[in-house]
Amino acid sequence: MGPRMAFMGLGEMGKAMTRNLHRDGNLTSPLTLWNRTKSTADAHGADLGDCKVAETVQEAVENSDIVWSCLQDQSAVEQVFDSILAANVDITGKLFVDSSTIAPEWSNATAKRVIEAGGEFVSMPVMGEPVVAAAKKLICIPSGKPESVDRIRPYLEGV
Ligand SMILES: NC(=O)c1ccc[n+]([C@@H]2O[C@H](COP(=O)([O-])OP(=O)(O)OC[C@H]3O[C@@H](n4cnc5c(N)ncnc54)[C@H](OP(=O)(O)O)[C@@H]3O)[C@@H](O)[C@H]2O)c1
Fold first, then answer.
1. Atom 29 (ligand 1) nearest CA
2. Average pLDDT of every residue of the chain
3. pLDDT digit string (tens) for 76-133?
4. Which atom of ligand 1 is found nearest the CA of 71?
5. Which of 24, 27, 38, 64 could covalently link to 6 via disulfide, CB atoms 3.0 to 4.6 Å apart?
6. In angstroms, rounded to a whole number, what is the distance separating the alpha carbons of residues 27 and 125?
7. Percent of the chain, pLDDT > 70?
8. Which of 18, 90, 81, 72 has its CA nearest to residue 47?
9. Cα(100)–Cα(107) distance, integer angstroms
10. pLDDT of 88
11. Cα–Cα distance measured from residue 30 to residue 145, given in angstroms and rounded to the nearest whole number
12. Is 40 in the pocket of ligand 1 (CB under 6 A)?
C-alpha cells in the first residue's frame, strides 16, 4: 500500500499538478483535495473522479501521509501552516512538500516548525507555467533531508 496523498491549493498550478498525480502517480488510495474555496475542490474532484474532498485543512492532513501544497504566496502558506500546527493534529512522520513560490527564509521557517512538531518538510519550488505542468515538463527543485526528498521522488519523474 503506497502513501496516502493530499494536495492543498487548487489554483492553475495545483489543478494541473493534481491531474498528473491522479493520472500517472500510481496512487494506491484516492487523492485528497483541499482548497480554501471548497467549491473549486468539489468541481476539480468531480472532474478527476475517484478523489476525496476535505472539508478542512486539518482533515486533509489527518488522513494523509504526504501533504503537497501549491499556494499563492507567503501569506497563504503562513496561514495554512498556522492552522495545521495550531490544531491538535498529530503530524508525526507526515511529509509536507511545498511548491509555492516563497522566499527561502520562509521555507526554512516553515520547515523548522514542521520538523519541531515531528513532521518532515521538503521545499520544492516549480518552474514552468500551468501549460508546462499539463505537459508533465515542470522543473521541480526539491530540497530537504535526503530521506524526505526520496519520499517525493516517485511522484516527480514521469508525473
Ligand atoms: N502560474 C504559474 O505560471 C506559476 C509558475 C511557477 C510557480 N507558480 C507558483 O505556484 C503557486 C500557485 O500559483 P497558481 O498559478 O496556481 O496561483 P492561483 O491560480 O492564483 O491559485 C492560488 C491558490 O492559492 C490559494 N490561496 C490563496 N490565498 C490563500 C490563503 N490565504 N489560504 C489558503 N489558500 C489560499 C487559492 O485558493 P482560492 O481558490 O480559495 O482562492 C488558490 O488555490 C504560486 O506560489 C506561484 O508563484 C506559478
1. 76
2. 97
3. 999 999 999 999 899 999 999 999 999 999 999 999 999 999 999 999 999 999 999 9
4. 24
5. 64
6. 22
7. 100
8. 18
9. 9
10. 83
11. 27
12. yes
Pocket lining: 111 vs ligand 1, CB cutoff 6 Å: no
Distance CA 49, CA 31 (A): 10
Architecture of domain 5-155: 3-Layer(aba) Sandwich (3.40)
Instruction: List the domain boundaries for the chain.
Output: 5-155
DSSP-assigned letters across all residues of the chain? ----EEEE--SHHHHHHHHHHHHHS--SSPEEEE-SSHHHHHHHHHHH-SEEE-SSHHHHHHT-SEEEE--SSHHHHHHHHHHHHHTT---TT-EEEE-S---HHHHHHHHHHHHHTT-EEEE--EES-HHHHHTT--EE--BS-HHHHHHHGGGTTT-
Kindly provide the b/e burial profile for residues 47-70, where b requires at least 16 CB atoms within 10 angstroms of the residue's own CB: ebeebbbbeebbbbbbebebbbbb
Are 138 and 128 in contact, with CB atoms under 8 Å apart? yes
